[in-house]
Amino acid sequence: MSRAVLSLGANLGDRANALRTALTALKDDGVLVARSTLYETPPWGPVEQPPYLNAIAVVRGDRDAGGWLARAQELEEAAGRTREVRWGARTLDVDVVTVTRDDGAPVISDDPALTLPHPRAHERAFVLVPWATLDPTAVLPGRGRVPDLVAALDPADVAAVVRWDHLH
Ligand SMILES: Nc1ncnc2c1ncn2[C@@H]1O[C@H](COP(=O)(O)OP(=O)(O)OP(=O)(O)O)[C@@H](O)[C@H]1O
Ligand SMILES: Nc1nc2c(c(=O)[nH]1)N=C(CO)CN2
User: Fold this and answer.
1) What number does the ligand 1 atom closest to the CA of 86 have?
2) CB distance 72 to 38 below 8 Å
3) Which protein residue's CA is at the shortest distance from atom 30 of ligand 1?
4) What is the structure's pLDDT at 167?
5) Nearest ligand to the CA atom of 39
6) How many CB atoms lie within 10 A of CB 9?
7) What pLDDT is stored for residue 83 in this prediction?
8) Is-contact 29 6, C-beta < 8 A?
9) Which GO terms describe its molecular function (predicted)?
10) pTM for the complete prediction?
11) What ligand has the least distance to the C-alpha of 84?
12) Which CATH number fits domain 2-167: 3.40.50.300, 3.40.640.10, 3.90.1150.10, 3.30.70.560?
């Protein structure tokens, strides 16, 4: 058994449907512990593309880190994700942010096929803001407390992450 924090993002097609379908699938798996609301976020990175909807899911179940990545990739494929440009637009992207064993130890890996914690999570407002709101006690191993990482971001980047559900 382990616990994982997953980051879900979509910026093509029916974005909310893609996120809700993936979250429902995790619930149906019996692994969903908690999920954030949906947030609209400006695209991060060098590629010009439409805004994203993002969410965070906390899951716990009988999988190891590779098992969570495999499930994440199945969810992407179920949403019709095609492989395109790195950091480019997609119907659904599911990243594994952290994995924690039941004894509390974080899984640390520099394998390019599964790097943990996710090497760019600490600089992504679209990950940190929903995560800190969902779990103010969360820690990103090697980086610190998630609310402190939010406080270290550019305030304009934090303000640009906007709750979406209650607007729609
Ligand atoms: N923590 C991780 N979560 C998800 N995929 C990972 C992780 N670490 C490494 N990978 C690898 O990254 C590849 C996914 O690349 P992808 O094209 O989705 O990157 P991206 O989502 O554009 O960029 P980013 O990883 O910065 O979010 C996968 O094939 C996977 O093996
Ligand atoms: N706001 C936001 N920007 C991104 C996202 C994402 O999920 N949200 N995913 C990306 C894929 O690497 C690249 N940029």
Assistant:
1) 22
2) no
3) 113
4) 67
5) 2
6) 24
7) 63
8) no
9) 2-amino-4-hydroxy-6-hydroxymethyldihydropteridine diphosphokinase activity
10) 0.96
11) 1
12) 3.30.70.560
* Segments making up each domain of the chain, as ranges: 2-167
If phi over 0 gives left and psi between -120 and 50 gives alpha, with beta otherwise, what is residue 5? beta
Determine the Cα–Cα distance for residues 146 and 23; give it in Å rounded to an integer. 22
Write the CB contacts of 84 (distance below 8 Å, at least 6 apart in sequence): 90
* Residue whose CA lies nearest to ligand 1 atom number 24: 87
In whole angstroms, give the CA distance from residue 136 to residue 123: 17
Pocket residues: Cβ below 6 A from ligand 1? 69, 86-87, 93, 95-96, 113-116, 118, 120
Residue range 139-158, pLDDT digits in tens: 999 999 999 999 999 999 99
Full DSSP string of 89-126: --S-EEEEEEEEETTSPBP-EEETTEEES-TTGGG-HH
Distance from the alpha carbon of residue 161 to the mean position of ligand 1, in angstroms: 22
The per-residue pLDDT for 90 is 87
Ligand 2 centroid from CA 165, angstroms: 19
Look at ligand 1, atom 6, and give the residue with the nearest C-alpha: 114
ipTM of this predicted structure: 0.96
